[in-house]
Please model this.
Amino acid sequence: MQSHLALLLPVVAVWWVAGYLADGLPRMTHARELHRRAGWLLTLTLIGLALTAALPIAGLATTGASTADQAASGLALAAIPVLVVAICTVRRVRRLRAGAATLAVAPRTPAPHGLRAATAHPLIGMPLQVTGLALLPALIEASGAGQFFGPGATGPAITVGALGIVAIGVRHALRHNRLAERARPERAVVSARSAGALHV
Model:
């Protein structure tokens, strides 16, 4: 087991939990619980960004090949998704939380389909989950498990990682489209007419 594993574990854990919370956002049917979950997600995302930035900074502050340098080198694969999180995801989660706050006047106030569609937008959940996936190779190497796979496993690992990213993206896109379809005004009118017909 490598010594920089202790530095990587908190970073990986925060990103994985953030990805899990983001995946559950569209299942929140009430505005108050959606507001609360979005607050947790925003906090964890900011912590993840801070921890990810802290490792390279700590490596620059030390001389030679320190433990922080070794941990920071494992973050290279996650650089692009982390950048997307900082630019896009944080802004969207803030807007989502603010929108839910305006509706969270009562505990059982339902979250409208438009707000739930916003929670399923690929730029919220996908960058967080791809970041957690991109940190997995660094975690495997730091734990010493990489020696069991050998150098020939690099190609298959890249293929599996790419397929995982595609699967995550397709899943988020389909869920977002399904909720956005429910939020269309004409769909709401049809639902209202159907409900009225049932009361006749």
